[in-house]
Amino acid sequence: MTTESEQDKRENELDTVVAAFLEAEDRGEKPNPADWVKQYPHLALDLQSFFDDHSNFRRIASARAGNSAAVVDNSKRKGTVKIDLMAHRPPAGPPSSAKGKVNRFGDYELIEEIACGAMGVVYHARQASLNRSVALKMMLGGRFVNRDDVRRFRTEAQAAARLDHPNIVAIYEVGEHEGQQYYTMRLVEGTNLADEMSNLQKDQQAAVRILMNIARAVDFAHQHGVLHRDLKPSNILIDRRGQPQVTDFGLAKCTDDDTSLTISGQVMGTVLYMSPEQAAGKNRNITWASDVYSLGAMLYEMLAGETPFRADNPLDVLDKVRNEDPRSPRKLNPKIDRDLETICLKCLEKNPDRRYSSAEGLARDLEKWLAGEPILARAVKFPERVVKWIRRHPVPTVVVVMSLTLIMTAVLALQWRHDAGRKGDLFDMADTLAQRGNYALARQILEEATKTAKSPKEISKIKSGLKAIDDLEEAVWTMGSGLSKPLSGKKIQQSDDMNGQ
Questions:
Q1: For residue 91, what is the DSSP state?
Q2: Which residues belong to the active site?
Q3: Where in the chain are the domains?
Q4: Tell me: domain 4-388, CATH 1.10.10.60, correct?
Q5: 427 Cα distance to chain centroid
Q6: Of 104, 228, 258, 394, which has the fewest CB atoms closer than 10 Å, so is most exposed?
């Protein structure tokens, strides 16, 4: 019998794998569903159901657009391509409007599909009543759609609609037509950040300027009570002016809304850019710091050419996000400025409290870097890295500490015996010199031994030796003869403290 915790774990794994599949599609790859089913045999039935519904969904979406997949060609502008997250899908022929037919959706004429995801599709459309071009996002049905999905779709639209910022895609209208939820937004003609990654890697200043603007837009959302929770390159559009536009608030959370569609323990977000707390399913405790982490992950990719963590499957990526520190981006790209690396790694701290206190704080440090001023972030020193490693690896730490303790004990014991033997040799030497009448050198040797004495007994013994030398020298001068007796009638003896007996 499957326990509740096992069921939750299974559902989280399924969500993660599905999200990774859709991400691969967004990047323009052609993931084969059969390969994914084979890779995750314990999720085979659920995955197959998802792939069947996903295929049906896309078929319905194509029908809605009249099988139209005309391309908005912005390639004439250097460095700009069409906004197309389904790049692997070939054009399906000319628009239906070319045959005199118009595909209508309420007040909108559907011109072309420009993006498609798991639960929604985005069209380039014309609003007939206002004669303006818009991007129209609609939610299509399927057996995975339920009331929470509808509420989440509307939450996405309402969250974005409350944000009036030049670097956030503006929302025009939220509504329902023929039972289908939709909203319209400003049409951004250009590209997206995912398509610009290779160019930005060659231009650190351009990358910083873009991320600085994104960070300020995200901070604006935070100040208005909206957490994005799914920041990633494909959700950042780049307009014709080269300005970033934050979009897709599908996982957004309004902090002033008591109702929540988030289930504690459920992994929400995109694995390559999500924070450790998101990867651990701690959704109810997620704050602005998670968005700061995602901004850092995007900066890391812009600079280093790859995401902070990579693995053969999304579940392994999640494990690394939770438990490992990212590699130094300078190891992947030595041309990265050290201060810029420091900024990036501060965003990616495992502990949210060690990240920037706000997205605006990140933007200010990026601005300082651009101006050639000292940044506020500081590089993590070696002792701090050691402490962080110890906290994540307590058992190996105990073993290492015990081993070092034994080694140090042995070294100190040998050193102690060596010092004791050395002091014994000094006493023998001082005695010999005194017997031969070289009192000054004998005194100097014992005074040298005083500097390394470690116990009152040793000091007392040395003082006795020095007094014996004085007595002997006085006796010689008094008697006017040679050495007639040893020091005080006896040889200087090394104490037990000095010879380790």
A1: P
A2: 230
A3: 4-388, 397-499
A4: no
A5: 63
A6: 258
